[in-house]
Amino acid sequence: MRLKSVLLSLSVVAALSSNAVEAFPLIANGTFESATNGTNKQLSSSPNGDANRSTLAGWTSSNGNDGGYNFVLDSGIITTGASAIGLKTYASSTAHGNVFASDALYYPGTLSQTVGGLTVGASYLLTFDYALGQQAGFDGANLNNYWKVGFGDTTVNAGALSIDNGGFSGWKTASLTFTATSASEVLSFLAASNSPGAPPFMLLDNVSMQAAVPEPSTLSLMLGGVGLAAFLARRRKSKA
What we know:
Structural class: alpha+beta
Strand order of the largest sheet: 2-5-6-14-8-12
Oligomer: single chain
CATH architecture: Sandwich
């Protein structure tokens, strides 16, 4: 009876795990559609700051002095003169709406959000879309630009992007796994580059974090181990 209960419990865990990604989103405003004081503006470090700047709901943008050279941009007009920062070239296979943009070489600010409701020791899967474009009015290649992603005391660099003069990298999707060391952690993004170039803008969108689902192989091993234990228990019982 005890083994049956264990097997039933593991089956329930497997079923719940398969739905964990949809059931427990942890990031607020991960698509950057909600902003105070309007969109298509440079970001402020304070909701009550410069009337010409905006803030992203749920997020803080700061380089220590102000919001940094960070922007929330409307991707629909991002290559036109109506954009707060225009790019030479832009392309998207899906509708991205507002995007976060930061220049890695000119007063970049850290975009951060405190993520709560975490379980200490549990793993969490962070996914986000990112791209690299060149600011209009400038020339030159842009090499090795990337997002420096922080979660608590852990920092990971997303894959670096490079573009030729006037190019656009296209949108990429990053998947990173972090382990929580407290019930709340600070998630942060900082545009970085180890190669100087003409004004590069790193773009960010669709930030999402969920409890990591165990790999199918891990669940199979767990269930297989319990099955073996049940088999050995039956053998011992028959011998007795």
